[in-house]
Amino acid sequence: MFNEWVTQRNAINEFEKINRHLLKQDIPELIKTLSCFLMEVRNAKGVKYPRETLFEMLLIIQTHFHINGKYYKFMTDPQFIPLKNTLDNVMKVRKD
Predict the structure, then answer these.
(1) What is the DSSP string of the chain?
(2) Which domain holds residue 88?
(3) 96 — pLDDT class (breaks 50, 70, 90)
(4) Which of residues 36 and 95 earns the better pLDDT score?
(5) Closest CA to 22 of 66, 55, 53, 78
(6) Rg of the chain, C-alpha, whole Å
(7) 0.70 exceeded by the pTM?
């Protein structure tokens, strides 16, 4: 799902390409990428995902990092406060 979003976003925005390789991103780039993902991702019908689904997607991405030896905690690490704030704001807007 993330890779599909990156492909679609990069096709639309040729000036600010998103790096699809999350494991190679530094933390500021990762926060920016994941924040954009949470705000913009839609299902195949173009409908925004429910807030619970966004939270689950973020946990799956976090697990991907853990499997690959990067033990980030998106919801509790102080360095990821901007990402948590983005998720909180998106979840407030989507009253599912």
Answers:
(1) -HHHHHHHHHHH-SSSPPPS-GGGS-HHHHHHHHHHHHHH-B-TTSPBPPHHHHHHHHHHHHHHHHHTT----TTT-GGGHHHHHHHHHHHHH---
(2) 2-10+28-93
(3) low
(4) 36
(5) 66
(6) 13
(7) yes
Whether 59 is in a domain gets the answer yes
pLDDT per residue as tens digits for the range 20-59: 899 999 999 999 999 999 999 999 899 999 989 999 999 9
Asked, for residue 21, whether it belongs to a domain, the answer is: no
Single-letter amino acid, residue 88: D
Asked if residue 46 belongs to a domain, the reply is: yes
d(CA 92, CA 96): 9
Structure-token match 């991702």, residue found: 41
Q: How many domains does the chain have?
A: 1
